[in-house]
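We now fix the convention by which a protein and its fold are recorded. These numbers are not coordinates but entries in a learned vocabulary of local backbone shapes. A record is reproduced here so that you can trace the correspondence yourselves:
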Amino acid sequence: MGDSRHQLFRQFTAGQWHGFRKGVEKEGLRADARGFIAQTPHPRALGSTLTHPRITTDYSESLLELITPVCDSTEALLESLWETHHFVHQHLGDEVFWAASMPCELDGDPSIPIAEYGSSNVGQLKHVYRQGLAVRYGRMMQSIAGAHYNLSFPDSFWQQWQQALGDGRSLQDFKSDQYFWLVRNFRRRSWLLMLLFGASPALDASFVDGVSHHLERFDDHTWFGAAATSLRMGDLGYHNNAQASLNICFNELKTYTNTLAQAIRTPWPAYEKIGTRDGDRFIQINTSILQIENEYYSAIRPKRTTEREEKPIQALDARGVEYVEVRCLDLDPFSPLGVSAGQLDFLDLFLLDCLLSDSGWIDDDECVHLDDNYKDVVSRGRDQNLNLACRNQPMPLMDAARRLVDGLAPLAEQLDQWQGGDRYRRALAEQADKLTDTGRLPSARVLAAMREEGLGHRDWVMAMSQRHQAAFRSQALAPATQQAYERMTEASLAEQAAIEAAETQSFEDYLADYLSDR
């Protein structure tokens, strides 16, 4: 079936292919001039974190999140991300935008401020949710940053693809089914992304102060994994025994949303013991396995844009899957934007092939193998002796990686023929080179650069962050772009003020209504 899907796709013409729709959400810490996590509030000059369309915060007040609009080309996406970065750097003073996924210097949980979103009920809900994350997992994980890549296909493609497959369902149901088809293959292959793009093999010693781990000493202030690709995605990152009980393997929309909904309604004893309040202060939304859908951490999520006050599950159930969100990408510390053109083009190719290749349902046994493959590459992906479980047979990691990368060549050639140029062949060659010379893997490059410059994680990332900042500050935004960002700041602050002024319900009543709708 997989080969036949590729054959059907090859029968498309250049005029029938309208490309990808894409966006990035890039996180990054603010750090002070000493390389310590910023203790200052979100800069007012960057607008309201509740309502700004491009600039917000993730879990921590110090953890910026920059959001691109939906773009139809890599160039447009990177231009938007560059402009937002440029505007942010204007307003950081002597702080820097931390270039790596693993954080700068910390001093335990109290040093990591929880994000604030104002006095409105929706703003308070966002804050309480983050308080819940703090009491459930501790605040240290809230200092880790990454990049999320959002990808979809235009309806013109889906209509032609549905016709090619002879599918008679509604377009909405067909799209959801096909996105889950893609997601299942992503789950089978996501280890490859950790090998090619994992860029967090080291961390500051303050992150693991008092924590048991198996890392090696780099210097007095740095620990590292000798063969690790991504400490961010390993056991030191966001993990949780309560979530492990969910066993979501992403076979279809109905079971996915039902499982998440059940988790939001199912109490978890450890969270019940904590309770939802500390005196009069709310510290969790609820005491269930998940407070809300977004608490479930996975390398990929099927998504649907929500309406105001609508919950993600409700949006998916009502209108189906709109796009997929790839969540496992480390920041590229060598790039001022944290991502690169070649990386995004490769992801387009990789995700399209996930859609076009055979994709049976994932049973429980396969789910275990997939999780093990992913964890192994995260923790020791540069170990030359590492084997993966491929179709229940052991295969050397590099052999499995070359097989997947080489298998993308016909698709890259086809897209380049349709669009002109050699964009996808170049992106593919860039990744193939990493498999020929593993010293080109980002995780290897980070450690090599640290050794060459004689710097530990904190000092090396600080130096990279300062270089990126100097590059942005040496240029000026076009006047019209500068004015557009200043207008966004003013409009977002005004919108937050209007929401707060219109509030009539107490937060306690608002939260009760929110929970009753679950």
